[in-house]
Design brief:
By secondary structure, this protein is of the alpha+beta class. About 60% of the residues lie in helices and about 15% in strands.
């Protein structure tokens, strides 16, 4: 089985895409992440991450309908794929395994 390589930012983008469900497009993903991270994210960085995730097969994109609000432009929506959910699960399992190996002293530091 191929090892999952998912950067921290890609992981957050993938998670945000999954949580937004049918409303996941560039601006809503950006707003979700900015709200979570409490910092600005460039649309360029976001779209680059989405493109990498799509190339890996972890998100798929689709074009929405034309709306007046968009000035006649169509939105590109993103959906997390089954493979994307599997990748997130594998990354979470790896993180949990490593976290479980932390010495108790360091875990106590997190509590204080």
């Amino acid at each position: 089985m191929k090892k999952v390589t998912l950067g921290a930012f890609e992981e957050l983008v993938l998670l945000a895409t999954g949580t937004l469900q049918d409303n996941a497009y560039g601006v809503t993903i950006k707003m979700e992440l900015e709200d979570l991270l409490k910092k600005k994210i460039s649309l360029g960085a976001l779209y680059a991450a989405l493109q990498r995730l799509e190339e890996k097969g972890w998100v798929s994109s689709r074009i929405g309908g034309i709306t007046e609000k968009q000035g006649g432009r169509r939105k590109q929506y993103y959906d997390i794929t089954k493979e994307g959910v599997v990748a997130l699960s594998e990354v979470r399992n790896m993180r949990n395994e490593l976290f479980s190996r932390l010495p108790q002293v360091k875990i106590d530091w997190l509590k204080s």
